[in-house]
Amino acid sequence: MEAYVGYFLYFLSLLTVGGIYAIFALGLNVNWGFAGLFNVGIVGFAAVGAYTYALLTTAESTFHIGGFGLPLPFGMFAGMMTSAVIAGLIGLICIRLRADYLAIATIGIAEIIKLILKNETEITNGPRGINKIPRAWEHFSEERFYSSWPMSWFGTPENWEAFFDTLPNWYWQPLFAGTILLVMYVIYRMLERARTSPWGRMMTAIRENEPAARAAGKDVTRRRIEAFIIGAAIMGLAGSLFAQHLRLIEPTNTFDPSKVTFLVWVMLIVGGSGNNRGAMLGAFLIWTLWSASELIITGAINLIGDIFSTLDPSILQTRAGFLRMMLIGILMQVILQRYPGGILPEVRPASPKADNNTRVSTGETK
Amino acid sequence: MWDAFGFDFVNFYLIPGLVLGCIYALGAIGITLTFSILRFANFAHGEIMMSGAYLTWTVMAIAGYAGLTLHPLVAMVPAALLVILLFLGTDKLFYKPFRNADTIKVVMASFGMMLIIRSAVQVIWGPNQLTFVRGIAKPNPVLRDMSSDIGMMLIIPNKHLFIFAGTVIIVFALSYLLNRTRIGKAMRAVSDSPDLAHVTGIDVDKVIRATWIVGGICATAAGVFLVMDVQMLETTMGFRMLLPMFAAAILGGIGKPYGAVFGGLVIGLAEELSAYPWIGDAPLLSPGYKTGVAFAIMVVMLIVRPQGLFKGRSF
Prior knowledge:
The complex is a heterodimer of chains A (366) and B (315).
Chain A: H1 2-34, H2 42-57, H3 72-94, H4 99-119, H5 121-124, H6 143-146, H7 151-154, H8 157-166, H9 172-196, H10 198-208, H11 210-215, H12 220-246, H13 257-271, H14 276-307, H15 313-338, H16 356-361
Chain B: H1 4-37, H2 45-65, H3 72-95, H4 103-125, H5 141-149, H6 158-180, H7 182-192, H8 194-199, H9 204-230, H10 237-252, H11 257-273, H12 290-304
């Protein structure tokens, strides 16, 4: 029985983190898949969302500013908004540039965000980061939550304590995973609406042929900034969920640019850029591969350590992570060269005026 | 008026700034050449620098086993050859399939390349910091005594002199290559107009190979100089150099090697001098934000004058 609970929890954690990455991938899909903006600063927007959420919702602390103890949904919303505002500012400056330049600029923004988080020690606790970030559902069993409203209306602190004692200590995991999947689903539905709407078709037109879209009277710069902001807001939201999942965030290792940014990019490329379902599929697939490869490589290292008893397995252990990264990188190169469309290639939305025949021929199902 | 103030300024801000500028300049040459001849922003350039430094370290270590103590500048030569091989190999495997595709695909491939090279280095050499030589670098005694005789004490360690000399030699060699040799002229022609160059019978593949070779040599030199300067070899150094190098290339104008050199010096000086206490006693900008200076210069440049100071190409 215990073993089954263990498998179940492992599966739930795959869903949780996979779901968070799926939200990142959906955000990137708005940037890259819809509007063709090469955003390599995902980790920056994630960090902004995570830090905003963390500072607003943690209990008061002497290590960093505030710890305002605000409600969690408010913290998530604020994370989204801060990320969107920063994206708006960059968008105003850099969006007219060629794609390569935008990529360099977004890398720069991510680096500067990291520098600020690292150097402004009074606000963010510097390199030591913020801990005890409340996680949705799990936080109910913390004293400061059940002794305040609305939970205090339904029971005394003693009642609540007794109630949480009856629950298994992982009771929050299915609920947390469910929340993330729900958020992902809502975003997916909204983006599907956006993709098939005139706005989405206009985005595709701008991405495919900018001069033609401009000649057709579309405000290209404005639309691009819109797509950039929407994508960044989604990334900020995913960042705040990431902070909840981790409970401890710090600027350097948590928000390692090569890891987060690159994984999300690989997920989108493998799943199929331009396709929202592809983005989610790619996220779950790559995340499962990533975490399964950890188990496999650990097993292989133990085996090698048993066979060659002179080898110190700990050296291999520290390097195995990099090997996984390399393999994921090579996977991305292969997909880029052989299957540039990804697993689920983009399906162009048909115009509502088009008749049913064209709908069938373009593969649109509805 | 050579007082304590000037002593601080020259020895602790101006000279380190110039050294950093030389390193950025060498890196930016490779970036600007790839940008103008292959027409994409090569994100993997910083990692090539880093791997060049690691290969140099390996050559030194192997020579050490054989009982030889090589200077990094000597060990750099075989390492540069290996880097060129690496460069040509990655071009063949990862960049060539995209030669006729969208530019952005190649940029993406180079982004992937950046992480593949970095993780390969991490797998092979491990994540720990290494160093070429241990110990504190002593200032060059001859220069110190000579300059203190005329009342301005210069404290320049030998490694900095080597970096200056190496940069000057490489820049002169590059200018000879671009202006005097056939392949250099072909490179400039392709950079100006690839279609026209193709029509006039220039072998574009050969030019591309030459670009990788020149870029590889400059990148290895930059990586080795950086490690000589900070006496520390780590896997993230390539990524940290990427932004300033791009800033230098954009500042000088894309496709202008001399512009890249000038841009590199300006960015290096700006980064170091931004921490100088220009007003009052506190540093003008906290040293933690040094990298931000390069970024700020780059963004301002892209808005105000996208073609760069030397009238490079603007996209």
